[in-house]
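Folding follows sequence. Below is one example:
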Amino acid sequence: MAQTLDDLPPRAALVEIAHDFHARGWMAGTAGNLSARDDDAHFWITASGKPKGRLDENDFLRVRVHDGAVIETRHTGDKPSAETSIHAVIYRLFPQARACLHGHIVESCLAAERAKKSAKSLRLPPLEMIKGFDIWEQNPKVDLPLFKNHLDVAKIAKEIETRFKKARPALTALLVRGHGPTVWGASLQEAYNRFETLEFILRYLSHPHRR
């Protein structure tokens, strides 16, 4: 039995994450997308329109980091996730990233909704859980990058690339309004742990008792 997600082949680990996230309500229906690097130049990403609670290892496409071009598919007619451009940008900007996870979480939408419409980041509370992002400070002041949602996902990807080229984020995470968080890590297990950590913090932020 695998001890961590990193003990599994990348696609097998992604399947496990998809089933887990779906069970928690973070990937309802066909929502969300997951990816993992195959090598420095390519990554595997979920095919578009697949129910995340029923994924298997053939429901992924191999994509080129450089330009997002599809290199390999396991099912004829499969198309890469609509958010493939965002994953490609993350892998280009952060060569150390080996996995990138995106889900749709109710609390993330509520937390972003409470921020000013002009806000480009969300100040996170200095909870103990922030250490999950390797932030070891007393009462840290950490901002989660916040982006507008666009029907054209490539526009979101471009805005992420433009902002992160100017200033690297304090966290390996970002949030798109009315959409959900994207989290990446130096391994599959790290990305998974950090997604859980961020979900906890966003759930705290959106709690009605904090109003």
Observations:
- The first strand starts at residue 33 and ends at 39.
- The two ends are 44 Å apart (CA to CA).
- The chain has one domain: 5-210.
- The longest helix spans residues 188-205.
